[in-house]
Design a protein that fits this description.
single chain, mainly beta, SH3 type barrels, OB fold (Dihydrolipoamide Acetyltransferase, E2P), 3 domains, 5-stranded antiparallel sheet, 15 strands, flat
Length: about 190
Amino acid sequence: MPNANEIGKGQAIKFNGDICMVLETQHRTPGNLRAFVQATLRSLRTGKSFVQRFNSNESLEVVPMARKKYEFSYKDNTGYTFIDPTTYESLTLQEEILGKVKDYLTENMTVDVIFTDDKVAEVEPPSSVILKIVDSPEGVRGDSANNVQKTATLETGLQVQVPLFIKEGEMVKISTADGKYMGRANG
């Protein structure tokens, strides 16, 4: 079994009888104290995130994970439905599991679904997505100081800061890592 120094973001571990996704790790060595690893974990059972400290040489049980591609199909009152493009099996996920990923989902978008013990652990969108601006106030004439931005609403409901020249109806590229505007989309 690996020790706490060897775990990293994206792995799943068993902790207190539950399977948890590792969202972030930091190795700390404070002054004359023993080194420890501070990890942000998300419980698959409850969906809640929490911070946990481990001694750097503490053994942890890593849970094997499987990754599979799915296409987003639709959202209704039962949740978000994804289709396996090879077997056409459907998978319906609740908003709690998706987290911020729901802000980037458009019809037929391919995502990676990560499973641990046949349960959905996480949904990973592509690193960037192209979305349509559905609401964007006009820039104020003469307001052209360096890098002035305005708030625009995308087709998924996500609000992002964009430059003044971006207009309603345009397609823009958005980073799924931080939800920031990356530029106009070609096409």
